Amino acid sequence: MPRSVNHVASRNRRKKILKLTRGYYGARKNVWTVAKNTWEKGLTYAYRDRKDKKGNFRALWIQRINAAARANGMSYSRLMGALHKNNIEINRKVLADLAMNNPEAFKAIVDKVK
Questions:
Q1: What is the pLDDT of residues 26-53, one digit of tens each?
Q2: Mean pLDDT in order along the chain per 10 residues (114 residues)
Q3: Are 23 and 30 within 8 A, CB to CB?
Q4: Which terminal residue of the chain has fewer beta carbons within 10 Å of its beta carbon, N or C?
Q5: CA distance 91 to 29
Q6: DSSP letters along 50-76, please?
Q7: Helix, strand, coil: what percent of the chain each, to 5?
Q8: Cα dihedral sign for 81, 87, 90, 96?
Q9: What is the per-residue pLDDT for 86?
Q10: How far is CA 102 from CA 2, 19, 73, 80, 81, in A?
Q11: How far apart are CA 84 and CA 27, in angstroms?
């Protein structure tokens, strides 16, 4: 008796991956094994970089806060230490946004903790 294979399901499974790899370069978009490997590796990069993104943004916020703090005569580390000592609960994201978009409010915060 001949072997029965569910070709409909396997073809659909392959088409699904090949559809996800549209726009890739060369064989990565149309050769099944290459496309599958590229797609799987892309998923690992996406997972890793979702974690890295958080650190990258934190570093950006710290640079912006440091630049604004130094413009107001204080270093980043002294500013953050003074904020914690005065129990001012404001996170780096908001501080960086104030430093960029509302320098007067940032200056008020720095003056309060000086």
A1: 999 999 999 999 999 999 999 999 999 9
A2: 89 96 96 97 98 98 98 96 95 97 96 93
A3: no
A4: N
A5: 43
A6: HHHHHHHHHHHHHHHHHHHHHHTT--H
A7: 80, 0, 20
A8: negative
A9: 96
A10: 75, 46, 17, 18, 22
A11: 55
**DSSP 8-state assignment for residue 22:** T
Structural domains present in the chain: 7-113 (1.10.1900.20)
Amino acid at 11: R
Contact 65, 79 (CB under 8 A): yes
Residues 6+ apart with CB under 8 A from 24: 35, 38
The pTM score is 0.80
23, two tokens: 């726009």
Q: How far is CA 58 from CA 21, 46, 47, 72, 84, in A?
A: 32, 19, 18, 21, 18
